[in-house]
Write a structure and sequence with these properties.
Elements (H helix, E strand, L loop, with lengths): L1 E4 L1 H5 L1 H12 L5 E4 L10 H6 L2 E3 H12 L1
Parallel strand pairs: 1-2, 2-3
Amino acid sequence: MVFLISPVWRDSRWCLAEFLLAKQLGKTIFGVLIEATPLESLPPEMTAEWQLCDLVAVQLSREDRSA
């Protein structure tokens, strides 16, 4: 299951419930940061067990190279 993580996702109780249900059902979880979101502000269940892909950092890196 892919989660597109942003501050809005982090603040949504429904998104958290969906994440926790997927975890409870044993789904493979893949988190993708699509907006700058401090990792320490994410649910500990997500950052303790799963790797996250930070697309924000990738985009910023590409912008720096093209400048």
